[in-house]
Amino acid sequence: MKFIIGLLFGLGIGVGLGLLIAPQSGEATRAQLNEQGVLLRSGNFSEEIRARAQEALTQGRQLYSRTKDDLTDRYTQARSGNL
C-alpha cells in the first residue's frame, strides 16, 4: 500500500514539474505533433528515417574504426613495453 501511495505521489510531482518547466506551450507542442502526423501520413517520413539511419550507421562505422585502431596501437605499445 505504501508503494502505491509513493508511486502516485511521485507521478503527481513529476507531472507538476513537467508542466512548470515545459520548454514550450501546450499549443506549440500540439502544433509540432500535428506536423509529425502529417509527415507520417505523407510517406516522406520513411525517406527521412532511412537517411538518418544511414548517417547513424556511417558514424557508427567510423567510430568503430577509430576505436579499433586506437586499441590496436595501445595493445602493440603495451606488448612492447612502451606504455
Automatic annotation (TrEMBL):
UniProt superkingdom = Bacteria
Any Pfam family hit: YtxH
User: InterPro entries, per this entry?
Assistant: Desiccation-related_membrane, YtxH
- Give the protein name, as stated in the record: YtxH domain-containing protein
Native source organism of the sequence: Ktedonobacter racemifer DSM 44963
